[in-house]
Design goal:
The chain has about 130 residues and is an all-alpha fold. It contains four helices and no strands. The relative contact order is 0.15.
């Protein structure tokens, strides 16, 4: 239970930083202004992304192979949030959401795995185990 809470917090912080940057920069580039109360919108939208990521645990090694169906579901959710919550036009939301999802969700999973799983103890090297010529 506590591992899922930590994972949710880590995912949320990574998604918040990445999506806030995307929303601020790209809405200014596309529309010459940022939507009002962008922090609240991005905070809520990224909480949805984080909850989905805790449930699915997207990773680069399975995102486009064995878990392709879950990746498609995640892409649909990201597109809907970028369109309805972050208020991008659908063509812009499609490109930005999918690009951000592919890059950030895999990186966030690497961070969650690194911070929540303990490290294995190193096995000691036996001295003198190689007695023959190389």
């Amino acid at each position: 239970m506590m591992a899922n809470v930590w994972a949710l917090l880590i995912y949320w912080l990574v998604f918040l930083a990445a999506c806030y940057t995307v929303v601020e920069v790209m809405q200014d580039q596309f529309y010459d202004e940022v939507t009002p109360q962008a922090w609240l919108k991005v905070g809520g939208g990224t909480l949805i992304f984080a909850a989905l990521a805790v449930w699915l645990r997207p990773s680069f090694d399975t995102m486009f192979t064995s878990d392709i169906a879950w990746t498609v579901l995640q892409g649909i959710v990201w597109f809907v949030v970028f369109t309805l919550v972050f208020q991008f036009h659908p063509p812009h939301a499609l490109g930005l959401s999918l690009m951000t999802m592919v890059l950030v969700s895999g990186l966030a999973t690497l961070g969650v795995d690194s911070l929540t799983k303990g490290s294995r103890p190193a096995t000691p090297v036996r001295a003198g185990s190689n007695t023959g010529p190389i």
